[in-house]
Specification:
The protein is 46% helix and 10% strand. By secondary structure, it is mainly alpha-helical. The relative contact order is 0.09.
RNA sequence: GCUCCCUUCGUCUAGUGGCCUAGGACAUCGCCCUCUCACGGCGAGAACAGGGGUUCGAAACCCCUAGGGAGCGCCA
């Protein structure tokens, strides 16, 4: 028997930029199929025409691409189960709506929004779960015809069978069981004729041959509804896995106020894609190794059995750790590009490699690189109050001696410092700190031994001289 | 309100009844390296939500409580 190809999918609705939670779901899904050498499908769920925007359709694709989560089937790539945008699949859905109508598994509902809202309010206030009453479930053909003649536009509701247990094995949470009586008849087609999530999402997964659906925990109670639809239609059911949500430091749903950002913002801020994937792949999932992995290694070692069930808190510290890991491994050309024009405009071409290797361990973001580029290559060097204090404390005499010592080893900091030490008698912190501050304006930073050759003799002299005047 | 889910160091997590004196990573602190800062190396402190059971034995199994979350939409 041929082993079924693993097919996973990511099905965003283009109503905004993808955030960490979304991105992690996409990542897990992509890693799953990548590990099995299966296929990853991207499907755009744009049935909500009010909120869907073309700009976000593009943004989602760009962001996934940036994260190295390429899809084998979907927009642009194509595939045999297209189209991959739900707004273009109306004909497909109509066919299946017809099938359900034939089988009397659905019925038109003429209840107005106001009516439904009111009913819900009453149910909630009397301690009942807000569930559709089934008012239109028993309308006769004549009643239906009459309402349609009046110009009323019905929604289509799915008849949920009574007294049934709906069971499935969740990839993450194990055995799940729901009572059908706890599910009200739900809408699968809106009054305007567009298809509702429960329906198109489930039908498309089946039609596209998706075998594994990894999605947020918020969908857990949607699953029995979708299983019901798939059963009614006689379509294949994928396996579902519901991933816990990402929350903020206080355990409440992740939001801007927790420092949560869209993938786009993370990228604009200078986070490396590998840093983001290494971090996200370990939020609610664990690897035996704590070592940095590229996307293929992340995939090779990914395992749904290692997905956690409890919500994970977003922690900027940990993301930053992976940023440093990624930065330490990035190629010279990648880092150069990452540093951006602020650095490109300042750093001489023949200094590129040295400049990068010198500051690499000391920076996290392009803005830091830009700062060091300005420090090293632009004059005059401006000292802040703290730096002035250190310079003043060392004294003019010290810098005069330093200036004398430059000759002969302007590119050899070790020898230079030794000479200054011998002349001035200063050592340790008293020796190094004033030199560092005079030369860079900073009390800390990359190795002076590497920085000094970048500065060059002329600049070193000028900066030491600057410390001789008030 | 009802239904469902979750709960191990500050954080991410390991843990499938004895390998647990609860392991690792991030963060924090300390030491070493360096005549400075960082990088790096070594080390320290730090957790089974609470209460009852079951068992020779419980972080693990059961029940209750507490706290957190989700769903109950003509959103997805």
């Amino acid at each position: 028997m041929k082993k079924q190809l693993v097919k996973s999918r990511f099905a965003p609705s283009p109503t905004g930029f993808i955030h960490m939670g979304n991105a992690r779901t996409a990542l897990f899904s992509a890693l799953l199929s990548r590990r099995e050498r299966g296929a990853f499908v991207l499907r755009i769920e744009d049935t909500d025409q009010e909120r869907s925007r073309e700009e976000f359709v593009h943004a989602v694709q760009e962001d996934l691409w940036w994260l190295s989560l390429q899809w084998q089937e979907g927009p642009v790539t194509g595939g045999e189960h297209g189209p991959y945008r739900q707004s273009e699949r109306a004909a497909v859905y109509d066919q299946y709506f017809d099938q359900l109508v034939q089988q009397d598994k659905v019925y038109p509902c003429f209840c107005s929004t106001q009516e439904l809202n009111l009913a819900r309010k009453i149910q909630v206030s009397s301690g009942q779960p807000p569930r559709y009453s089934g008012k239109c479930a028993r309308l006769s053909k004549a009643e239906i015809a009459e309402k349609i003649d009046q110009g009323l536009l019905p929604t289509l509701r799915f008849r949920v069978p009574a007294q049934q247990m709906i069971e499935f094995e969740d990839l993450v949470r194990g055995k799940q069981a729901f009572k059908s009586d706890e599910i009200g008849d739900f809408i699968i087609r809106r009054a305007d004729g567009t298809t509702a999530f429960f329906f198109c999402n489930a039908v498309d997964d089946a039609l596209m041959g998706v075998t594994h659906v990894l999605r947020g925990e918020d969908h857990l109670t949607n699953t029995p509804r979708q299983l019901l639809i798939l059963d009614a239609l006689g379509l294949d059911k994928p396996q579902y896995g519901h991933i816990s949500l990402i929350v903020g430091h206080d355990g409440s749903p992740l939001s801007k106020r927790h420092g949560s950002r869209s993938i786009r913002e993370l990228r604009e801020q200078g986070y490396l894609a590998d840093a983001v994937t290494n971090y996200l792949a370990r939020l609610g999932h664990h690897y035996e190794s704590d070592a940095y992995m590229d996307i293929d290694q992340l995939a090779a070692n990914f395992d749904v059995a290692r997905l956690g069930r409890s919500p994970a808190r977003y922690d900027a510290h940990q993301l930053l750790h992976w940023q440093h890991q990624a930065l330490a491994r990035a190629s010279l050309s990648d880092i150069w590009e990452w540093m951006g024009s602020a650095v490109h405009d300042i750093v001489p071409e023949d200094h590129r490699a040295d400049f990068i290797e010198t500051i690499r361990p000391n920076i996290s973001f392009p803005e830091h690189a830009a700062r060091w580029a300005r420090i090293v290559y632009t004059d005059p060097l401006l000292l802040d109050d703290h730096a002035r204090e250190i310079v003043a404390a060392a004294g003019k005499h010290f810098f005069a001696q330093a200036l004398q010592s430059v000759a002969g080893h302007a590119s050899d900091f070790k020898a230079f410092a030794k000479a200054v030490g011998q002349l001035s008698g200063a050592k340790g912190k008293d020796l190094f700190l004033p030199l560092r501050v005079a030369l860079t304006g900073e009390a800390g930073g990359p190795e002076m031994a590497r920085l000094m050759p970048l500065l060059g003799e002329e600049r070193v002299r000028a900066r030491l001289e600057a410390c001789l005047v008030d």
